[in-house]
């Protein structure tokens, strides 16, 4: 724990807004998602806990802007940045432009700024070029945040190199040590606006592990943690689940990239949850080839209701292009084993228009999605291949197709921002039209069971120039 410093700064964390939330009003559905994607960010919860465990007196004000917007509370970013000396925010790709507005308002008001999240991880040079970020955190935030606090409170730089941080005088982040999850304090939700969030969050989120060792080329979330896989102590997970239940959440999502990379540990976790569960229902995500019958049985006993897993494409060749390393049999078995257990719902994820995918592949995939998805115990999730800027996948995709727009607000995985050369057998406008027709047809088929897919907003077609002959 840090000694009480003379210049302990006041911090204010401001959430970003998104232009295109993936989900809309979900009241009355079986989905474990938040209406309009209004949700308490886990980065805030976990970093706030970490900070308070080292700096118990520090003042951290939280401005949940998405929640404010939903509640009709009007406030400008300029008003919000006034609440602290240091302004913090976090963003993924689609909300990076909004994060920039927050940092710019903070700099106008003379504040120190800190940004982290998945966009800064891959695009730290772009964020540095904004000229408004004093500290850019490029991976796990726990270590860098404490280093920044020491620097701000002590008035000087604690050490010559600060791994995981990019600043004007340190343009490369360097290699960062992985956080020992067992050393972290128990997450605390006290003092956060839970009652207000409960109106929109149909599920709370927790993270029980970090990372995924699988090599899927398109994946950004797991790469935040390199190829590592770490698990939290089971008692700490149980305690967090209990806390969320006590706060009023009856559905909880384990937002992990995969909960079952270490199957022995996963079995121990779900056995412990089965013993402790006072009534909450769970959604989990794992790779299809990790879902053994024994693990699924244990999950059912633990209260798991929704099992999410990536199929991406039913064509083995497309999955090979993705480096997905997932056999055909594993997918079929996952569906069979999940649907054989009455209490479970399957939540397969699919990705359309991957480099190398042909029209025949796409149509075969669509036929599979429709056939398997025509079942109210299957919640199919459709996404489009999205080369997130700054990633290795983006660099390689640009040599294998055409990126239709660089406007980040469309990088949510629900817009066809990329056309692979393998689908450019006809001019791009026609290829896009044909791809969107496949999506619309699929969406209308699976929406009969779970109406979660929406038409692609007109603004996207305007932005790519599709209406003006490109
Ligand atoms: C839960 C979740 C949500 C929730 C909560 C979002 C949130 N901000 O917490 C909801 C449903 C609201 C949501 C919304 C969206 N999401 Co989302 N979401 C996830 C999910 C499943 C888990 C994220 C999470 O909580 N991780 C745990 C926390 C602790 O990790 P973290 O945020 O990265 O924070 C760590 C570090 O990055 C760093 N850090 C992060 N921020 C900061 C800030 C500071 C100041 C510091 C010091 C450090 C720091 O420290 C943290 C701890 O080490 C991920 C997939 C995954 N498994 O990661 C997708 C994911 C992040 N989401 C994604 C997307 C596309 C979205 C949306 C754009 C969708 C939309 N159109 O609405 C919005 C964006 C809204 C927003 N502003 O976040 C993509 C992002 C892809 C990309 N490369 O940009 C992901 C990776 C899923 C995917 N594979 O497609 N999401
Ligand atoms: S299995 Fe899922 S989480 Fe793991 S790398 Fe592949 S896509 Fe990412």
Short description:
This protein is of the alpha/beta class. It contains 17 helices and 16 strands. The strands form 4 sheets. Strands 2-1-3-4-5-6 form a 6-stranded mixed beta sheet, sandwiched between helices. A 6-stranded parallel beta sheet has the order 7-10-11-12-13-14. A two-stranded antiparallel sheet has the order 8-9.
Please describe the topology of this protein.
Layout: E1 10-14, H1 42-54, E2 59-63, H2 65-70, H3 77-81, E3 86-90, H4 96-108, E4 112-116, H5 118-122, H6 124-130, E5 135-137, H7 142-154, E6 165-166, H8 194-197, E7 204-206, E8 209-210, E9 230-231, H9 234-247, E10 251-254, H10 263-276, E11 281-285, H11 293-302, E12 304-312, H12 316-321, H13 328-340, E13 345-352, H14 359-373, E14 381-384, H15 392-397, E15 401-403, E16 418-420, H16 428-446, H17 458-463
Parallel strand pairs: 1-2, 1-3, 3-4, 4-5, 7-10, 10-11, 11-12, 12-13, 13-14
Antiparallel strand pairs: 5-6, 8-9, 15-16
The structure holds cobalamin (B12) and iron/sulfur cluster.
Iron/sulfur cluster (SF4) binds next to loops.
Write up this protein.
The chain has 470 residues and is an alpha/beta fold. The chain has 17 helices and 16 strands. The protein has helices at 42-54, 65-70, 77-81, 96-108, 118-122, 124-130, 142-154, 194-197, 234-247, 263-276, 293-302, 316-321, 328-340, 359-373, 392-397, 428-446, 458-463, and strands at residues 10-14, 59-63, 86-90, 112-116, 135-137, 165-166, 204-206, 209-210, 230-231, 251-254, 281-285, 304-312, 345-352, 381-384, 401-403, 418-420. A six-stranded mixed beta sheet has the order 2-1-3-4-5-6, with helices on both faces. It is globular. It starts with 9 loop residues before the first strand and ends in a 7-residue tail after the last helix. The structure holds cobalamin and iron/sulfur cluster. Residues 16, 18, 20-22, 34, 37, 39, 41-43, 46-47, 88, 90, 92-95, 114-119, 137, 140-142, 144-145, 205, 207, 220-221, 224, 255, 257, 388, 412-413 line the site of cobalamin.
